[in-house]
Amino acid sequence: MNTVWLFPAAMALALLVDQLLGEPPLWAHPVVAMGRYLGAFKRWLPGLAAAPAFVWGGLLWLLGASVSVLVALLAEQLIWQGIRPWQSSLRWGMALVFMGLLLKPLLAWRMLREEVMAVEHALQTSLEAGRERLSRLVSRDTRPLSAAQVREAGIETLAENLNDSVVAPLFWFAIAGLPGAALYRFANTADAMWGYRGPWEWAGKCAARLDDLLSWIPARLTGLLMTPPAQWPALWRQSGLTPSPNGGWPMGAMALRLDRRLGKPGVYLLHAEGGEPAVGDIARAVTVARQGLALAALLLMGLALGLRGGLAW
User: Fold this and answer.
1) Which of 88, 217, 261, 264 has the fewest CB atoms found within 10 Å of its own CB?
2) How confident is the model at residue 277 (pLDDT cuts 50, 70, 90)?
């Protein structure tokens, strides 16, 4: 059995398991473990002076990333050496199941979709309920937001995290297997927990910059696949309006596709001539994201196959 097909098949299986079963229990979730490691330093690191905070932040990031990659590498090697998928179709199928199940916790499309849709459902109850539900997804103060701004923030969260939680892990899996996906998820989790200004300015500097680096290609891929080619010049212009070098690509794509303005007051405004987010726009955004993900998954499966010689075979 040709093993080059194992990686694209594992990506398809991981997405299927995600759709059917959602997230594994907390005790078995690698991203939860990453978060616990990073959270162990949240009281100590920000209190350090700039230079030691930068050094310790970088060293602790490197330690966590190394452990994540080594565990993933060990798991992948156990699949290859323990199951030997090239020996028979049965062994190939067994390796596929293990590879797909190990990849699944490193991506989270169903949870992202459901959490964002829950914001719209909460808004149907009351504005206060919508604000409270949104506060589970964003770090900003949601109390002064209007209903349109709550929807706006929900759509932005969906677009940006389509890359962070789904497309980018699949991209790095296609490039480097389970170790690549694990490295990205650790980097993205570290950025989410440490990559802030203020007290975290220096302690989280490495986390923020390394996440920017690892997200650079996937973010652009996500944005381009959510927009028709005719809108690519407009997407290029929108992508440079955010402080993040990557966030403007998926968020700008979503703004253009929905014809809605998206932004954060005093920070950025995307597609300023678009309308105000209204009832139904979050559901529309989920549809756009689903279409973009389908294209990205097919493209990245092809990439995984091509990198391992499958196209020539």
Assistant:
1) 88
2) very high
The whole-angstrom separation of Cα 204 and Cα 195 is 5
From 98, 81, 109, 82, select the one nearest 9 (Cα to Cα).
Answer: 98
CB 107 within 8 A of CB 25: no
Q: Distance of alpha carbon 149 from its chain centroid, rounded?
A: 22
pLDDT more than 70, % of the chain: 98
What is the rounded average pLDDT of the residues 285-301? 98
Please compute, for residue 152, the number of CA atoms within 13 A of its CA located in the half-sphere on the CB side: 24
Q: What is the pLDDT of residues 225-237, one digit of tens each?
A: 999 999 999 999 9
- With beta carbons less than 8 A apart as the criterion, state whether 12 and 304 touch: no
* Residue 169, token pair as written in the block: 């892990």
Extract the tokens encoding 226.
Answer: 């959510």
**Contact between 62 and 54 (Cβ < 8 Å):** no
